Amino acid sequence: MAVDSPLSSPLGPPACEKDAKALQFIEEMTRNAESVQQRVLAEILSRNAETEYLRRFQLNGATDRETFKSKLPVITYEDLQPEIHRIANGDRSAILSAQPLSEFLTSSGTSAGERKLMPTIKEELDRRQLLYSLLMPVMNLYVAGLDKGKGLYFLFVKSETRTPGGLLARPVLTSYYKSDHFKTRPYDPYNVYTSPNEAILCPDSFQSMYTQMLCGLLDRHQVLRLGAVFASGLLRAIRFLQLNWRQLAHDMETGSLNLKITDPLLRECIVKTLKPNPELAQFVHHECSKDDWEGIIVRIWPNTKYLDVIVTGAMAQYIPTLDYYSGGLPLACTMYASSECYFGLNLNPMCKPSEVSYTIMPNMAYFEFFPHEPNLDSTGFDFTRELPPKLVDLVDVEVGKEYELLITTYAGLCRYRVGDILRVTGFHNSAPQFHFVRRKNVLLSIDSDKTDEAELQTAVENASHLLREHNASVVEYTSHADTKTIPGHYVVYWELLVKDSTNSPDNDTLEQCCLAMEESLNSVYRQGRVADNSIGPLEIRGVKNGTFEELMDYAISRGASINQYKVPRCVNFTPILELLDSRVVSAHFSPALPHWSPERSQ
Ligand code: AMP
């Protein structure tokens, strides 16, 4: 019920007093975007004035924008490697941040095959929590009655390590779920989850998923929204249900918990609530044993009003599958965030996925934007030249234009290129709203893995060494992220040159080539294969000789210039995929898991 509050918001009537405050905060921040940005920059620069990094560029205590822009270079992660290395190895001096770094957050973006290590400080948790606290007040503007039930969210912690110098290194969500901010959050009727903390915090992914699914089934009538962070995660949960519903139904029937749940705290917590419920067991059996799983989400959880998952960016590939399983429930993309910094939220979360725009909250960090020329990814601008380029401030971006995002954070990243390309769609007050266009240089992605062209090239090169004993080589290749099955997998199309047809590469060799490629890919990919089970075995599809020439002919027939034609290293356009698939002569899958361990190799 909307309250008639003196704090009522231009965004719409708030659902309660607490929401009114949150909406008012959004209004204040977005109305004063320019002054908030100036304040944030001045705060960051004055707090960190004595850090080695700011002293190196002779900021001499200046906190104004002009000095900052004229003296500090635009950087990438690679530029910060020496500092990150020193911190990882135990140097506790104020290198990037005056406040001690509390941990490293391990990004799904990689550098030299390993997750990037993002410095963070304790107070960043407050900033992240602040952004989370704005999500439900906005959602309540569009969906009524979310305080009358629960959210079924599949949330997971992942493995963590320590750097040689003893700092924790773990993903940002693992850090958040393990924090008191999350674990001891006060009761909020709009944020009640079916998953107990013990299930979310269980490090074993099977036990965690099993118990979260079980609790979600037990509470099925109370579930009003269903989600995971990314679309791929929610589909993994559906797949899990397909594989495990019999055992889950058995547990409900008998009131006894699967013996594979061995985590003592988790077991104790679930056993307390699990009572025999033959009726529910029968229902689950009835629905899940059908061949047709279309609309399974609304059949099992009939009161679900929307799915809360990110389907923007690389995740857009999952929209048709989610629609299939959910019977077309609305898909809400609520926020835009990263390990480096949480950026902002969607003020119209029930809009169509293609219309999602995120409003960057100006209090989260200091933001700059580099005008982005489409198609000039790596060559577009030489950031290494002496004078820093003219970057645009948050309030000065122009509607319709694309930009690359740069951030300066409280934890000490200065003018750091995040690697995301955004397009301005409009403004809320004076804060711009952005459509997420894509991440730069990402060729293939199934889950949080991001494989770029160079990584794929190296993988193909390494694998093709195995062809030498067959006197064969890879003439051309391209790739595709196949998400028709769950989990999805990488498909690499190879056209081979076989010099001796009596000794052409056999299935065994090509399977080993698949595995060799997987061994070459970055650690986020291998973690997805080994620990998270979120990526299926890589597949090589051998295509007939001449296929890539046909591909070129096709491109030229559609207007490509013959002189400039380059083989695309990833294809998504259906007619080209159909052409490739119609020329496939053999298919081979990776026969084993690649190596992966939580320990970093460097
Ligand atoms: P990580 O560093 O692993 O936390 O990943 C952060 C990256 O995930 C961002 O820089 C984006 O590329 C991507 N990302 C995060 N939120 C969204 C979103 N809402 N839509 C599309 N991509 C997103």
Automatic annotation (TrEMBL):
<dbReference type="InterPro" id="IPR004993">
    <property type="entry name" value="GH3"/>
</dbReference>
<feature type="domain" description="GH3 C-terminal">
    <location>
        <begin position="455"/>
        <end position="573"/>
    </location>
</feature>
<dbReference type="InterPro" id="IPR055377">
    <property type="entry name" value="GH3_M"/>
</dbReference>
<keyword id="KW-0436">Ligase</keyword>
<dbReference type="Pfam" id="PF23571">
    <property type="entry name" value="GH3_M"/>
</dbReference>
<dbReference type="InterPro" id="IPR055378">
    <property type="entry name" value="GH3_C"/>
</dbReference>
<protein>
    <recommendedName>
        <fullName>Indole-3-acetic acid-amido synthetase GH3.1</fullName>
    </recommendedName>
</protein>
<dbReference type="GO" id="GO:0005737">
    <property type="term" value="C:cytoplasm"/>
</dbReference>
<comment type="similarity">
    <text>Belongs to the IAA-amido conjugating enzyme family.</text>
</comment>
<dbReference type="Pfam" id="PF23572">
    <property type="entry name" value="GH3_C"/>
</dbReference>
<dbReference type="GO" id="GO:0016881">
    <property type="term" value="F:acid-amino acid ligase activity"/>
</dbReference>
<dbReference type="Pfam" id="PF03321">
    <property type="entry name" value="GH3"/>
</dbReference>
<feature type="domain" description="GH3 middle">
    <location>
        <begin position="358"/>
        <end position="439"/>
    </location>
</feature>
